[in-house]
Amino acid sequence: MTNVVQRYAGQVAVVTGAASGIGREIALRLSSEGARVALWDVNKDSLDAARTHAAASGSEVTSKLLNVSSEADVAGGIDEVVSRWGRPDVLVHAAGSVGPAGTNAFEQPPRGFRRVFSAT
Fold first, then answer.
1. Which end of the chain is more exposed for a tag (fewer CB within 10 A), N or C?
2. Residues linked to residue 15 through DSSP beta bridges, in sequence order
3. Cα–Cα nearest to 13, from 77, 56, 70
4. How far apart are CA 20 and CA 22, in angstroms?
5. 36 with 59: CB under 8 angstroms?
6. Rounded distance between C-alpha atoms, residue 73 and residue 57, angstroms
C-alpha cells in the first residue's frame, strides 16, 4: 500500500469546474491529499459522479450546482462553505466553456466567443 501525502489535511478547498477535465482531476487530488473539498459546476450528472469519486478518498466533500458567472451563485456557495468548514484556504477556478468541436477562438462568432469567457 502506498502512503499518500496528506499535504492538504485540515485545509478547505473550493474547485470550480469540478465535474470534468482539469477541475475534476484537481478536486480528486485535493481530496486524496486530505482537503475538505467543495466541488462546484453546472453539470449535475458529472458533478454527482465527481463527488462520489472524491468522497471515496475519505475526505469530506460537498458539491453544489453553481454558475460562476452568477455573482449570487458564487456568494451563496462561499457562504455555504464558510458556514460548513470555515474560510477556504485553496481556490481553483477551472470553470470554463468551449465552443463546438473542431473550432477555435478565431472561428467563433461573437456570441460564441463571449460564451467561452463568461462560462455560461
1. N
2. 39, 92
3. 77
4. 7
5. yes
6. 27
Neighbours of 114 (CB within 10 A): 11
99: buried, middle or exposed (CB in 10 Å: 19+, 13-18, 0-12)? middle
Give the separation between CA 6 and CA 46, rounded to whole angstroms: 26
CB 62 within 8 A of CB 73: no
In degrees and rounded to multiples of 5, residue 31 shows phi and psi of -65, -35
What cell was used for 14?
Answer: 473550493
pLDDT in tens, 60-112: 999 999 999 889 999 999 999 999 999 999 999 998 766 555 566 667 677 76
Q: What's the distance, CA 5 to chain centroid?
A: 22
Half-sphere exposure of 112 (CA within 13 A, CB side): 11
* pTM listed for this prediction: 0.82
